[in-house]
Design a protein that fits this description.
The structure holds 2 protein chains of 2 kinds. By secondary structure, chain A is an all-alpha fold. Helix content of chain A is 70%, strand content 0%. The longest helix of chain A has 27 residues, at 8-34. The termini of chain A are far apart. By secondary structure, chain B is α+β, with helices and mostly antiparallel strands. Chain B has a single domain (2-109), classed as Dimeric alpha+beta barrel (Alpha-Beta Plaits). Chain B has helices spanning 20-39, 86-93; strands spanning 2-9, 43-48, 54-57, 62-65, 75-83, 104-109. Classes of the chains: A mainly alpha, B alpha+beta. Chain A binds chain B through residues 97-98, 100-104, 106-108, and chain B through 27-28, 30-31, 34-35, 38, 43-48, 77, 79.
């Protein structure tokens, strides 16, 4: 009997992995069946199935195909829920009558559980979660909860906030879901374009959040980054959403994620890109990024994602830091500054200028960035200003910025990083 | 638009022993047939019935267990549909999977009980 000796530990590990891999699909298909107004019912049902799996697998061993077991159990759970609630509930409008009759319930459910249907459901779910009626932070929380299978506690840790705050965000997001009758249909035509932009932006922001969060936990930045890649991957697998900018964003995510493992050293300390061990970079992921970057180079629109991906690629391409083509990078930043002249973009552009023209040129640019005041609470601005001022010999000014950066940094790793830079530079 | 009851009878009840493949094929046919009626917005509801049952007679004093009739006569399900007239209701019924089991469909209009 396979796995008859699986310990509770083994079972919990398998369940944790499978939850992250499959629960998004399961919640999506159940939401498609029960209807978007029954999102909570779908989430609860999946939760029940996972609990049941823990119970069963501890006694009977982990099945040979855990995912298949889970799908079967979820399908059976769906039948139970339908039978129990069909007299007082309406499910998804288009199949509600068919779920009402025993002649049609089982086959209708089985049709919903077909593989390509599930994939489409997940895509539809992603569009629904990114509906403009839901606040941005609500969208992100909802995507993480329903599609990435994260617990409220995990989401709270990822965003360095309390579980209560995440519960509230989710509550409001689910309310918006119901009140706006958000459907699981794929928008088409112009609506699709707009909503796709929304979905891409949510993935982008989620990735940035994941990227900047530096905490040490069972759930790592890498996990979240790979979630983003997986969600973005769904969009490139679907004809209607497999557009140049979709591929550009995916390329960007791949390039950044490929370098994640070298961002912290063996002691868990943050590393400057100039000091990172480039042999740790994930070549396979970089290749995947290149493939999508090539796919993104069609059509006549250059998006922010294209330019950011191109910049990230320049870093990946350089065998060592000294090989970095800063001229090329600056030319991309120049385009980006025209397309999306946000203070953060202009700040990053100034760093490329520093590499080419020195710290004083960069300082002059930063001083004149419109809206730089918005970044006054951004620890990286002060870390950069500390660095640049130190390099131009203004030690006192540099110390002031480093201290500000220390106060603003959220995580211990960030603070330690700044502390070390401070000591190195101020010597 | 009127409502019609379709009563199905056959010698094989829905819980009769079949191979899983036969079962799946049979259920698929019912789903496709009912689905096509639903597609036209004419499906109201309906359920298959178990083969077992009780028949009460003599003012409820006499109760018999199934099988209560000749095989062919057993009611094993019903459907409630909307249709313009008997022609349309019959047209729907012609594609009923009950015929795969050599069964029958009885089409009856729902009576309006006006005082």
């Amino acid at each position: 009997m396979p796995g008859a000796t699986d310990t509770k530990q083994d079972v919990l590990q398998v369940i944790a992995d499978i939850t992250r891999a499959e629960s998004g699909k399961l919640v999506s298909v159940l939401t498609r069946i029960f209807g978007p107004h029954n999102l909570t019912m779908a989430e609860d049902a999946v939760q029940d199935v996972l609990l049941k799996a823990i119970e069963h697998w501890q006694v009977q061993g982990i099945p040979e195909h855990p995912a298949a077991w889970l799908y079967r159990a979820t399908r059976n759970r769906a039948i139970d829920v339908v039978r129990k609630n069909r007299r007082q509930q309406t499910f998804a409008t288009d199949i509600n009558l068919l779920l009402d009759s025993e002649y049609t319930t089982a086959v209708t459910l089985d049709d919903c559980f077909k593989e390509n249907e599930i994939r489409d459901d997940m895509l539809r779910m992603m569009f629904a979660c990114c509906h403009p009626a839901i606040s941005r932070e609500g969208q992100i929380a909802l995507v993480l909860k329903t599609l990435s299978g994260l617990s409220v506690a995990q989401i709270a840790r990822a965003f360095i906030t309390k579980p209560d705050a995440i519960e509230k965000r989710l509550y409001r997001a689910r309310m918006a879901f119901r009140e706006n009758n958000i459907s699981l249909e794929m928008p088409s035509g112009n609506a699709l374009q707009e909503r796709l932009d929304n979905v891409l932006e949510t993935i982008y922001l989620l990735f940035n959040e994941a990227h900047s969060a530096s905490y040490h936990d069972s759930l790592t930045r890498e996990d979240l980054a790979h979630d983003c890649i997986r969600l973005n991957g769904l969009l490139t697998e679907h004809e209607a959403t497999n557009l140049p900018r979709t591929n550009a964003l995916l390329a960007l995510l791949c390039f950044h994620t490929a370098r994640l493992s070298s961002r912290v050293d063996a002691h868990g300390d943050l590393q400057l890109i100039s000091k990172q061990d480039r042999s740790l970079w994930d070549r396979e992921l970089i290749e995947k990024g290149v493939w999508h970057l090539n796919r993104s180079a069609t059509g006549d629109v250059i998006s922010q994602y294209h330019l950011e991906a191109a910049i990230a690629y320049e870093h990946c391409k350089a065998g060592k830091y000294e090989d970095t083509d800063w001229k090329m990078i600056l030319s991309y930043y120049d385009l980006l500054a025209k397309l999306a002249p946000s203070p953060v973009v202009l700040l990053n552009r100034a760093i490329a200028v520093k590499e080419l023209e020195g710290p004083q040129a960069a300082l002059d640019i930063i001083r004149n960035i419109p809206g730089i005041d918005y970044l006054q609470n951004y620890y990286l601005l002060h870390a950069i200003l500390g660095e640049l001022n130190a390099q131009t010999g203004k030690k006192e000014k540099a110390a002031g910025h480093y201290e500000k950066a220390l106060k603003l940094a959220v995580s211990g790793a960030e603070r330690k990083f700044i502390q070390q830079r401070m000591e190195e530079v101020m010597k | 638009m009127k409502e019609y009851l379709l009563v199905f009878r056959s010698g094989t009840s829905h819980d009769a022993v079949r191979t899983p493949e036969q079962m799946a094929k049979n259920m698929e046919s019912w789903k496709n047939w009912i689905g096509s009626i639903a597609q036209e917005g004419k499906f109201i509801g309906g359920q298959p019935l178990m083969g077992e049952g009780r028949v009460l007679s003599q003012k409820g004093a006499h109760i018999t267990d199934a099988p209560f009739a000749e095989g062919k006569e057993v009611v094993n399900g019903y459907l409630l549909i909307n249709a313009a007239d008997y022609d349309e209701a019959v047209r729907f019924s012609k594609a009923c999977p009950i015929f795969d089991d050599n069964g029958t469909v009885e089409v009856r209009e729902i009576a309006k009980m006006d005082m």
